[in-house]
UniProtKB/TrEMBL annotation:
Membrane topology value: Multi-pass membrane protein
Compartment list: Cell inner membrane
UniProt-listed InterPro entries: DctM (IPR010656), TRAP_DctM (IPR004681)
Function: Part of the tripartite ATP-independent periplasmic (TRAP) transport system.
Protein name per the record: TRAP transporter large permease protein
GO molecular function (one): transmembrane transporter activity
NCBIfam families according to UniProt: dctM
Species name: Halomonas eurihalina
Domain TRAP C4-dicarboxylate transport system permease DctM subunit: 9-443
A Pfam match: DctM
Family named by the database record: Belongs to the TRAP transporter large permease family.
A cellular component term, taken from the record's GO annotations: plasma membrane
Amino acid sequence: MTIYIIGFVITFLLVMASGLPVGFGLGFLGIALLTTYIGFDAAASISVEKAYAAMDSSILVAIPLFVLAAQLISETGMGKRLFDAAKSFLWWSKSGLGIATISSSGVFSAMTGSSFVSASTMGLIATPELRRAGYSDSLIAASITAGGSLGSVIPPSIVMIIYGYLTDESIGKLFMAGIVPGIMLILLYSFALSFFISRNYRSTPPLQVGAAATRAESVQAGCGDENSAAPVERMSKRKALKEAFWGLMAPVIILGGIYLGVFTASEAAAIAVIYCMLIGFFVYRTLTIKKLINILMEAAAVSAMVGVIVVGGAVLGHVVSFGRIPQQLLETIVSLDLSPLQLMLLINLCLFLLGMFLEVMALMYLAIPLLVPVIAYMEWDNVWFAVIMLLNVNLALITPPMGGVLFVVSHIGSIPIVKVMKGALLPISMILLVLLLVVLFPSIATWIPSNM
């Protein structure tokens, strides 16, 4: 039976490597395999039925709404205000600008739910200032990839919604489960960056403030040069907080409402859209009707792409179930006679290796249907395993050679991909540490959801 599982995984990887968009690749593989079982006519009929059923889900309503909210937040200038607020509090630290990038990315992720939106937006905002302060390309990459990776764990994560849809788990509980690991990642990223800079002080400049900072102070050996380094301006804390207040309130309203049971995840997504539109039109006044139309079109395109992935994944999921592949995998695992910890470490190793070569959605649609019976058999908490899965998704986003966030950072910052990969080693090591802690101490993930 193991040969069928290996054959399925290899076929899946070959289709994903063919260059087809993920959604089309999933659907093509599903129809092709189903045809070998029951013939093309029956396969086509079942595929249409499964595609319709996949989209007929109230859970998925949250995805286009959160995508729209992310686009609105990106266009209204909230990201810049969050970055300025963080910078105003951290200007005194040598690593302040990098930590400001990470912390503001965390708050930004709590509004957008997307790692790619967070990495691209904060990359555009922070890269010029990091470079002007004399940060090396590797340090810039470390700061932005660390911040960008937070979008998959910190709620309202779109990846969490997909996991909840595939496992029929409460989206609200999944959102709450990501809070503590997300905060841990922000703190560990910041400590690791500070430690690295303190050990390499001569090659990393402190964050300089105002015109009084001299060029000599902002240029340190091996990091920047005399022509590129310049003082970094900051505004007062009061003014920065006033500017960022409405942005800081967004995650409080979204997550607070879900935790208190005031509204569901889908309702929270709708409220987020309305809130962002009101802020954009009447508070920041950076949103216009013309810009809103463009935002709606971009959000529709992204949502359609996600919809195709959901449909393709539903067809493939039916094939996986029809061929009893999860049951065969479970039988194989039981025959290995592993302890729960050994099995968990083996699963994480497989997810890590697959994440190096698969896009995030492809990884989830391959792994989750196969692992659901294993989770049930081992009597593992589904919310706990969700956080483990999402941390592996985080790794997949920033792990060479296929980490999508790496290429976003490279493109936006005009940084050679090799230097981006070098910088990504810092967040990768911290994610692995948090992953190990969550595996050993499940309450890190389950504490807040269990108190809802």
